[in-house]
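User: Please predict the structure of the protein below. I'd like the answer in structure-token form so I can feed it into my own downstream comparison script.

Assistant: Understood. Taking the following sequence of 189 residues as input:
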Amino acid sequence: MFPERRLIQDHLREWLDQPNLQRIRIRSHSCLTNTTPCLLVTPDPASGPAKRGQRLRDRLTKKNHTLLQYGEIKGTIVLLHGRNGRKEDLLAVAERFCAVGFRCLLPDLPAHGESARATASFVLSAFDQSFASSVLQEMEHAYHFKKDPSYLWGMSMGGAFTSAAPKHSSDRWSTAVIVCSFDSLPTII
């Protein structure tokens, strides 16, 4: 598959240019032999949560959930965008997860965004099947964060990657959330 690549939208550039407005930190990294641009999004412990993050924290507290102090991290979530999407599309999702104690990894899927890979196989290739695990492992090594619990969140085509990842490395993932997806391309066709 050769999906049309969408350019980054202006409102997402604002997130990248001024992450402090969302009270997060964003670091760019090139993974998988420089083929996969990835963003590492973490809470900024010096600032406290932004308005949306504070609203989420308040709601969870009212439901008797115990939250870590803002900026403390209890795990890593790999967020996988949909078809014709790009990593930056999930910055608002990452901001909310950061507000409740997660670091987030947002890679460009193969043949999407700024990925150097020219094609996507809809998770039929070994590369696609190990994609999420490989990105997570490389980012853990590059940024020296401990192997906290790891989670997957994918939507649309990212959901197909999310569905495949535990089959490839089941011991790596604590939970997977799939939003509006499929797990088998032949049934879709």
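That's the full token string. The two ends are 13 Å apart (CA to CA).
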